[in-house]
Amino acid sequence: KGGLLALFLYAFMPTIIANAQFVTTDLPVTAFSFVTLYHLWKFFKTERKSNLIYTGLFLGLALGSKFSAVLLFPIIFLLIVIHLWPKPADWESKISQALKWFLALGGLALAVIWVIYLLPLDLSFYLRGLKTVYADWIKNPQFYLNGQFSSDGWWYYFLFAFLIKTPLPFLAALVLSPIFYWKQALSAKNTSFIFIPILIFGLVTSWKAGNIGIRYLLPVYPFLILWTGGLADYLSKLSTPYEAEARCGPSRPRSGSPSKVRPWMVGIVLAALAGWHVYSAMAIFPDYLAYFNEVAGGPKNGYKHLDDSNIEWGQDLKRLADYQKQHPETKILYSWDYTNPAYYGINNVLPKEPQSLENPSGRYAINLHYLVRLQELSQRFDNPDLNWLSLYQPVGRIGHSFLVYEF
What we know:
Helices cover about 55% and strands about 5% of the residues.
């Protein structure tokens, strides 16, 4: 039951669906990281060597997906320490065992990466790749949050993005989980498999990653979903008669024990949250990238808080082409260089120069990322004519990523 609830939460998570559409590295590293730690958990539980082998193989796939997967090494190290700590053995034996497992996993992972990189002769290939992670970043990038720009970013950027781009019913269930779990005898080992990945991925992402998209935080989602999915298992146990009452026969309810009505009432609340969760995914279809919850004012107001891959990556070009067929005089202002509007039959694309924005006349369609960045250019060059979001009211909208202006 817990697994089914977790699957349900995962399948209707807008941020997951959005990034599952793209040929990017974020969801693959999320999936392989989760599967890696699942097999490590199985190995600790069963001590079968096959699970250790699977752990190493999936660790290699995670490392081959995205360089941020190197965070799995400290995560796995801590989990091994927590597993061996209570064992009745001397420290030398524990350290020796930990090193054997760690080296075995590292060796298997390295073999997988070597194959992924097509058997390079230079064995330092992965380290050289790690050094290039931020090599192509522009100097002094201007990150955006809530109408403000900063070259340093904000320590709470990803936490804020998570809170406004995650459906409120899931956040509510996440908050409710500790209330129901506090009487559960959750082992430190099981709890560590959930929260150590969340803490390390979350903290390092907030510390090092560029403030451009919640996609960098994707690896924490499966673990949060796993934790929340456990509500189903807990409630199913709560709805059954207590063993003590079964042994003693009918008696008055004990003071402080949950009544039989309580699980039923909680079930109704969770059913309402589940319906809300489905609605969150259905209402934004098919524009999952632009999803923002009700606290942020929904997808129409998302640009007031975040930009870049949090809102759009050119997903409305087909709609823009259809719009321009109906309004052929429309001039296009478009920011993304890696897509070609002409491929979709779009023409009249203006150059990205300030002259294209001053003294506008006629009809314009401009994407939201461009509009947000015009605010920063307006501040940098002290030119208020560039700040269209403050100066003008749009007359229309194309999907969730283009605004239409008419002068």
